[in-house]
């Protein structure tokens, strides 16, 4: 099997509209529509889907849980701009800036949580 990319991730959230708005506003991710009016956000060549635990989009993981996700996204802005932007949106930085090893090498990361407490690493590669 020749797997080379991730197409999408689905986050289980308490309020889909709130999550879409947060990811759109805080991370400037475009809102997309698919599957009979469902919405998500575009992240580069991938997308984030959202579902609520009481109305999951089947098939679903065995234990769809709100706030259980932990993933990294990559930003290209200067670190100072990222920190300023998060401050302007009143997004608390949980950790960082710290040096981490990303899929493409060393990067500087800051960690934040979305409204459902999912942990999001915002990484910035130096090159």
Automatic annotation (TrEMBL):
Does the keyword field hold Lyase?
yes
What residue stretches are annotated with the VOC domain?
A: 5-125
- UniProt cross-references to Pfam families, sorted A to Z: Glyoxalase
Q: Give one GO molecular function term.
A: lyase activity
Cross-referenced InterPro entries, in alphabetical order?
Glyas_Bleomycin-R_OHBP_Dase, Glyas_Fos-R_dOase_dom, GlyoxalaseI/FosfomycinResist, VOC_core
**This chain belongs to which protein, by name?**
Lactoylglutathione lyase related lyase
**Record keywords:** Lyase
The record's listing under Gene3D superfamilies reads: 2,3-Dihydroxybiphenyl 1,2-Dioxygenase, domain 1
């Amino acid at each position: 099997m020749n797997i080379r990319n991730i197409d999408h991730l689905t986050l289980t959230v308490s309020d889909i509209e709130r999550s879409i708005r947060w990811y759109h506003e805080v991370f400037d991710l475009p809102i997309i529509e698919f599957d009979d009016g469902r919405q998500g956000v575009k992240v580069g060549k991938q997308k984030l889907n959202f579902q609520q635990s009481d109305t999951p989009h089947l098939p679903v993981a065995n234990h769809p849980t709100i706030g259980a996700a932990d993933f990294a996204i990559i930003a290209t802005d200067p670190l100072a701009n990222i920190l300023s932007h998060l401050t302007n949106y009143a997004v608390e930085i949980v950790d960082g800036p710290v040096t981490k090893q990303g899929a493409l090498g060393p990067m500087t990361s800051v960690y934040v949580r979305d409204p459902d407490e999912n942990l999001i690493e915002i990484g910035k590669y130096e090159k």
